[in-house]
């Protein structure tokens, strides 16, 4: 729902276990609702299912119900792969065992991955109403503490919820500030929000909403205008405005209007820092000159909005990149929550602001690119470059500015 904490900002708790271990039942037991599909049929949950919910005393979270880690056959293997991908966005993992299961091979495998990724994990043995297993044996084999529950009788469920809340406290779910760390009480932030064909009807987009909210949280003062009113707004508040934040696509027009002693940046540059690593994006921008004719560039967007002609990702970015590099390039596109498995063919990745994915996912993409030594740039940094305002837009971020070598 529109009024809720956006999904990308909630801690993600994922439940892993074999088919029929009771993952879906456990979600229902934790939330006291029938929101996940329970079935005695093996492999009922095929794709990962996301549920936004409140877990008291923790608060709003996203719980991810996954397919079994022991799924078999070609289709089953595909499901297992999808389940493993979930690890990229998991803040807290629950490893669920069936009390009647003695072979722990699948569990060992996924636990290793969880630990390798540094994800905190809670071990849970389910169906203790059916049998009382030797829990020490499980703990010795997996080197993990286990809680005993029954999703059916609800035994142990409250303890588990407390454990989730306790573990969650120790995790740094706090995302870095969007803009709050740059402002003091009463600072005036002027937002430039062009209402053009691409703007959604009747509302603002998430980065605008979240930035405005962050200013409010830090006791700043928001002024929001379209670009046509910017001139007048600057005249009215000339000595008061500290930062102008604009839609990147309006950079070109706006930079001439905003006096040089006022900071100027964009939502996507703020997001490059909030969702990932601004410095990495600036490093990527430094690499545009090294592109060669025929190099393949991946354009990756986290949302799946309908593409329009003249669309930034479809038309404008490729055109600008060829202009900036002076080379003839090949382009491929990806959208949604996945990027191509094998990135090695790409010489550069251009990424959107990532408002639809969480920081963990964005960081995992950045790290994958880093591993392969592929420069990655987000739209905001790229458009800053294109409109010749990157230098100025980085004034707020000295660390990134230092790296920037035009
Ligand atoms: N007796 C008992 N049965 C359970 C328990 N938890 C789940 N089940 C049953 O186990 C089967 C599989 O449950 P489900 O939640 O769909 O498992 P999933 O495949 O891991 O999501 C269903 O028939 C459930 O009713 C439990 O704690 N005790
Ligand atoms: Mg299920």
Describe this structure in words.
The chain is an alpha/beta fold and 406 residues long. The chain has 3 domains: 164 residues, 3-Layer(aba) Sandwich (Rossmann fold); 91 residues, Rossmann fold (3-Layer(aba) Sandwich), CATH 3.40.50.11420; 126 residues, Rossmann fold (3-Layer(aba) Sandwich). The chain contains 15 helices and 14 strands. The strands form 3 sheets. Strands 2-3-1-4-5-6 form a 6-stranded mixed beta sheet, sandwiched between helices. The chain has a 4-stranded parallel beta sheet with strand order 8-7-9-10, sandwiched between helices. The longest helix has 14 residues. It is globular and about 75 Å long. The model has no long low-confidence stretch (mean pLDDT 89). Bound molecules: guanosine-5'-diphosphate and magnesium ion.
From the alpha carbons, calculate the radius of gyration and give it in angstroms. 24 Å
Integer average pLDDT: 89
What fold name stands as the CATH topology of the largest domain? Rossmann fold
- Assign an overall shape: globular
- Count, helices: 15
Name of the level-1 CATH class of the largest domain: Alpha Beta
Structural class: alpha/beta
**CATH architecture tag of the largest domain:** 3-Layer(aba) Sandwich
The tally of strands reads 14
Keywords:
406 residues, alpha/beta, Rossmann fold, 3 domains, six-stranded mixed β-sheet, four-stranded parallel β-sheet, 15 helices, binds guanosine-5'-diphosphate, binds magnesium ion
Topology:
Elements: E1 12-17, H1 23-31, E2 49-55, E3 59-65, H2 73-85, E4 92-98, H3 105-116, E5 121-126, H4 135-142, E6 146-148, H5 157-170, E7 188-192, H6 206-217, E8 221-225, H7 227-237, E9 241-246, H8 251-254, E10 263-266, H9 267-275, H10 278-286, E11 296-301, H11 312-325, E12 330-335, E13 346-351, H12 359-371, E14 376-378, H13 379-386, H14 390-393, H15 398-403
Parallel strand pairs: 1-3, 1-4, 4-5, 5-6, 7-8, 7-9, 9-10, 11-12, 11-13, 13-14
Antiparallel strand pairs: 2-3
Bound molecules: guanosine-5'-diphosphate and magnesium ion (MG).
């Amino acid at each position: 729902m529109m009024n809720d904490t956006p999904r990308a900002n909630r801690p993600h708790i994922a439940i892993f276990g074999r088919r029929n271990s009771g993952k879906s039942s456990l979600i229902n037991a934790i939330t006291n609702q029938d929101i996940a599909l329970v079935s005695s049929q093996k492999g009922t949950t095929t794709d990962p299912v996301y549920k936004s919910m409140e877990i008291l005393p923790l608060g709003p979270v996203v719980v991810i119900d996954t397919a079994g880690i022991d799924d078999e056959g070609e289709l089953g293997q595909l499901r297992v792969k999808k389940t493993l991908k979930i690890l990229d966005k998991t803040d807290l993992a629950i490893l669920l065992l069936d009390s009647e299961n003695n072979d722990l091979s699948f569990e060992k495998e996924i636990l290793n991955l969880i630990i390798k990724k540094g994800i905190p994990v809670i071990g849970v043995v389910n169906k203790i109403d059916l049998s009382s297993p030797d829990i020490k044996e499980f703990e010795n084999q997996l080197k993990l503490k286990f809680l005993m529950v029954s999703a059916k009788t609800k035994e142990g469920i409250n303890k588990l919820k407390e454990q989730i809340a306790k573990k969650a406290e120790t995790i740094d779910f706090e995302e870095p500030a969007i803009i709050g760390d740059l402002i003091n009480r009463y600072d005036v932030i002027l937002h430039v929000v062009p209402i053009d064909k691409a703007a959604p009807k009747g509302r603002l987009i998430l980065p605008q909403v979240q930035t405005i909210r962050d200013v409010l949280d830090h006791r700043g003062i928001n002024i929001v205008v379209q670009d046509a009113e910017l001139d007048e707004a600057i005249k009215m508040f000339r000595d008061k405005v500290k930062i102008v934040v604009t839609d990147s696509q309006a950079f070109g027009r706006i930079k001439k209007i905003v006096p040089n002693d006022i900071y100027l940046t964009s939502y996507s540059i703020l997001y490059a820092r909030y969702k990932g690593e601004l410095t990495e994006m600036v490093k990527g921008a430094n690499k545009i000159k090294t592109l060669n004719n025929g190099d393949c560039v991946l354009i990756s967007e986290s949302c799946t909005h309908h593409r329009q002609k003249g669309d930034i990702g479809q038309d404008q970015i490729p055109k600008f990149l060829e202009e900036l590099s002076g080379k003839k390039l090949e382009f491929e596109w990806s959208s949604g929550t996945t990027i191509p498995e094998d990135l090695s063919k790409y010489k550069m990745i251009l990424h959107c602001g990532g408002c639809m994915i969480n920081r963990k996912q964005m960081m995992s993409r950045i790290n994958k690119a880093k591993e392969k030594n592929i420069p990655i740039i987000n739209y905001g940094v790229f458009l800053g470059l294109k409109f010749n305002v990157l230098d100025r837009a980085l004034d707020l971020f000295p660390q990134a500015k230092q790296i920037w070598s035009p």
